[in-house]
Structure formats: structure tokens, C-alpha cells
Design a protein that fits this description.
This protein is an all-beta fold. It contains no helices and 11 strands.
Length: 124
């Protein structure tokens, strides 16, 4: 079982920035595709950003230009830098790991392993 440890959530004013981290306790981290998802009670779970083991990145439309996903293979850690936060970004954010198909990297059902989630709040 691959374990994912998230950190970095919190509350920040609209327009502010926050960085989430996800450390994978697995030696095969370099071969994993990584993704960030968020869960909203009304919208359900939606993909925000993903990064292939090759380094190719994928973003949801709403995240493009505001969020940046990156990874440090030496630390087995994936990051999500979030800028210009909006109230509608408020959600529980999850990191995920697996071997998603290239065309499905923002689909939650493509990932096998999940973190515990971290709350991000950007109040009005």
C-alpha cells in the first residue's frame, strides 16, 4: 500500500497564495503519475492538476494560469502552488498517485492511491 502524506492547507484571503505538499512513502515514486483533486459538497470531486512521471503537466481550465503543479523526485514530493485564490477554490484538496492514461489524468478513477485530504479555505 502506497502512503501519501499531505500538508499545507489553511485559510487565506481571496487573492492570496497557498502551497500544498504531498510526500509519497514509496520508492517507486519516480514512476508514478501524480494528481491534485478537490472535493466540494456541491460539485463532488474534480481534478485540478496532474503531472506525469515525465514531467508533463495537465490543468483544469479554472486552474490554468493560477495553479502550478511540480514535483521533486529527490524528496518524493509533489507540490501545488495556488495563486490568486478565489472563494470558489474552497474545498478539501487531495493528492493522488497512480498510472493514469494520458488522456485521463484529471479523472479521479484513474488513481489508485490517495492522501487524507487537506482543507483549503478562501473566504469572501
Amino acid at each position: 500500500q502506497v502512503q501519501l502524506q499531505e500538508s499545507g492547507g489553511g485559510s487565506v484571503q481571496s487573492g492570496g497564495s497557498l502551497t500544498l505538499s504531498c510526500t509519497v512513502l514509496e520508492s517507486s515514486y519516480n514512476a508514478l503519475g501524480m494528481g491534485w483533486f478537490r472535493h466540494d459538497p456541491e460539485k463532488g470531486r474534480e481534478g485540478v492538476a496532474a503531472m506525469a512521471d515525465s514531467g508533463t503537466t495537465y490543468y483544469a481550465d479554472d486552474a490554468t494560469g493560477r495553479f502550478t503543479i511540480s514535483r521533486d523526485n529527490t524528496k518524493r514530493t509533489t507540490y501545488l502552488q495556488m495563486n490568486s485564490l478565489k472563494p470558489e477554490d474552497t474545498a478539501i484538496y487531495y493528492c493522488a498517485a497512480g498510472w493514469p492514461l494520458s488522456s485521463r489524468r484529471l479523472r479521479a478513477d484513474e488513481y489508485r492511491y490517495w492522501g487524507q485530504g487537506t482543507q483549503v479555505t478562501s473566504p469572501h
